[in-house]
Amino acid sequence: MRLNRNNNFYLCTMAKRNTITKQLILESLKNSKSALSQEILQKELGESVDRATIYRVLNSFCEDGIVHKILGDDGKFYFAFCINCSEKKHQHNHFHFKCLSCGNIECLPNEIDVKLPPGYQSVTFNGFISGYCKNCS
């Protein structure tokens, strides 16, 4: 699946086989204000989609640069729809915030520039903060 951006609308063209399940998962991720886990998606989609299919689709979306994966403080993976990425620049060096009250996990907007010692090269960054969001504090 590739994502083309025109006038801030997301048009999906499938490089791989398009299925109703992929579209349902993509719509759930796009419409969510929070990163979603496989369990959350399973509850939203019901018994019509099995757990293995959801994981397979989410990992495929990660490979295609449509979503990014977040390792939460509970050891679970959460998935967030990419908003500020282009096809050439797919970067997620930002912190993620989990509210201890409502449980929402969101991407914080500021990119982080981590200064590494000479000779080191960063490939991924996973920063996670727990606390209380603006609606719960």
From TrEMBL:
Cofactor(s), names only, from the UniProt record: Zn(2+)
Keyword Phosphoprotein: no
KW Metal-binding (keyword) present: yes
InterPro entries: FUR, WH-like_DNA-bd_sf, WH_DNA-bd_sf
Gene Ontology molecular-function annotations: DNA-binding transcription factor activity; transcription cis-regulatory region binding; zinc ion binding
Gene Ontology terms describing biological process: negative regulation of DNA-templated transcription; regulation of secondary metabolite biosynthetic process
Cofactor binding summary note: Binds 1 zinc ion per subunit.
Chain positions recorded as Zn(2+) binding sites: C99, C102
Name of this chain's protein: Fur family transcriptional regulator, ferric uptake regulator
Species per Swiss-Prot/TrEMBL record: Chryseobacterium arachidis
